[in-house]
Amino acid sequence: MGRSLSVTVGTTPSVPFAGVVSDGAGIADAPSAAVARVRPIGDMAGLSDSVVAAIQEAFESVTAGADPIGSATYPVPGSNVIFLATTGSDSNPGATIGAPKATLAAALAAVPAGGTIVVRGGVYHQGEIEAGAKNCTIQPYPGETVWFDGATTFTGSWSGSGPWTAPYAITYDRQLGKGSNISVWSGAATRTIVDQVWIDNTKLTPIADGSTTPAAGQFAVNQAADTLTIGSNPAGKTVRIVDLKFLLAGSGITLRGIGVRRYAQAMVEYRGAAVCLGAGSTIEQCVIEHCSIDALSIGGGTGCVVRRCTVQDTGHSGVMGDNMAGGIVEQCIIRRCNRNDFDAEPTTAGFKMTRTFAGLTIRFNHIEDVADGSGIWLDTTVSRTKIYGNTIIGTSALGTTGYRMKNGIEIEGSDGGVYSGTQYWSYVVGNRITDCRQAGVLIFDSGYQRIWNNSITAAVCVYLWQDYRENTGGNPGSEGTATQSPWHTDHIELVNNALIPDSVYLTQLRGQCNSDAAYKIAGGAMLSRITNNWWRPQGSGLMAYLSDAAGSSWSNRSTLAGLESTGATYGGPLAAIMDGNYQSDSAPSGRGVPIEADVAAATGLPLGYVPEIGSIWPELTLAS
User: Fold this and answer.
1) What are the DSSP calls for 454-519, one per residue?
2) CA-to-CA distance for 466 and 470, rounded, in angstroms?
3) CA triplet 251, 256, 262: central angle to 5 degrees?
4) In which region does residue 231 sit, left (phi positive, over 0), alpha (psi from -120 to 50) or beta (all else)?
């Protein structure tokens, strides 16, 4: 059963809006001044005047994504500065604006601990920099536009009159991974071609290696013959190729106000992303785009922050990470990912994080068009998480069949977590999720999840699933113990959600236990609370689809009364955990459950505030 919490309406919020939010485990996230709160929708009656005033002042529109590169005006420190310029020389000391360094690698070697590298405006064709542990900041000179670009002008001699062929000595590994189970769609010959060719500002599309007849807008590499063949006439135009795998790898680095584009890391390479940042790193107000595999990899320890970044046009995923304990990902735009059409499993996502025990906050992000992947994916003991205020849109510019986002939010093998004898919850609150071809929220071998005030439109709005896996504690260092994170799908709360199925399965709730599951649990028993949700009818679709613990039979329910009367075989009766739900064509207003203490602490919402059903926050404002 769900934990019962008392709510005192009219009490000043226990967590100040602009202060520190703690989950009670000594993990605090301090929202930046740039995190603008939003004006809530719902009933504020009964709240004190001071709380209402604080809401009206603090809840404003949230902006996601980076401002235009070149608009940043970070001040230049008075000391401990190394300057970098396209006109510089690595023989210069770099300590004055008149004697800058020429390469980022040299600047990183020269900058003192806690210092700042100030980059003058220009385009820098540099990369593959292994910085190690550096405590420094990299930022542009105020008002100047800085791009690091993995592409260079191609100077080969073309032969032929169409298609055109030239010598090409760059060889990228075509493997998907060493010992990996990563797969590609059947018949897809170009998924691991990470080469990039541009004519002026137009990116050409790769076709199979060795092809000799690319059409206009296409190219082919022949690795055996060391040639490049293009189908568009290069005469009088600038042809660029990408010959750098990644820009930078290091920890303790703050990267801000910088543009990064066109790096061609191979799937099998140790560095799988254009920017790879470790413990203690922050990246903010950066644009990372046109990366052959992933844009950003971050984690490896505490203190990592991704803020106000735009990540777009990647061959695989947007942001990937591991062990980002206590980290924050906020106010980012992540869009147009998986342009190489990798399968959804095991890694394709807008944002994916693994093995993070000590809390992670993902808030106010706009994630859109992750072809056949998941918008947000937590995989393997990512505990004590707070996912709130995000907008996730599953439609894809590539088309509808096979390209729509598979899941909006996927939580896999990631329980709330038991630490120091205390059971914690994870939170999915106030998100807008639309047009996902499988699930809006997929809770997969994961327990103790509070799913509150989300607006979800998907084939299955909330999908609860227990498969064969169970944490036996064999890898406690990376996966936690069986007690800390058992990977059991149970104690799931559904409160104040708007559940709107689309035209595929027409199902709002699915609870499934596989026949080979080690942890046997009926679909209905996965839930501990079903309160004040809006279940909008959708044609002849089923409202709920619940399996028995053996995974051999199903209970199909199309009304609230039917769901309440679900039999014991399927985890019922559910009437004891259901209250205040609505099944109607139009949404009820002002009828939600008041925000409870731990939800308030996790999200900064005022304790006792009564929201409407569905997402609390208005749509995000996207930076230009």
Assistant:
1) -EEEEEEEEEEEE-S----SS-HHHH--TTT-------EEEES-EEEE-TTT-EEEEEEE-TT-SS
2) 9
3) 85
4) alpha
pLDDT of residue 221: 95
Longest CA span, the chain:
79
Nearest partner of 605 among 47, 27, 5, 34, judged by Cα? 47
Tokens, residue 198: 């541009």
Preceding amide of 234 cis, omega within 30: no
Chain CA centroid to CA 475, Å: 25
List beta partners, residue 435. none
pTM for the structure as a whole? 0.91
DSSP readout, 82-109?
EEE-TT--TTS--SSTTS-BS-HHHHHH
Task: Give the whole-angstrom CA distance, residue 71 versus residue 253.
Answer: 21
- The burial of 565, by beta-carbon neighbours within 10 Å (0-12 exposed, 13-18 middle, 19 or more buried), is given as middle
pLDDT means per 10 residues in the chain (624 residues)? Answer: 24 25 30 36 61 58 94 97 98 98 98 98 97 96 98 96 95 65 52 92 94 96 95 97 95 98 78 88 98 93 95 95 93 95 88 92 96 95 96 86 88 95 96 95 98 95 97 89 95 96 82 97 98 86 91 94 95 95 82 90 86 86 88
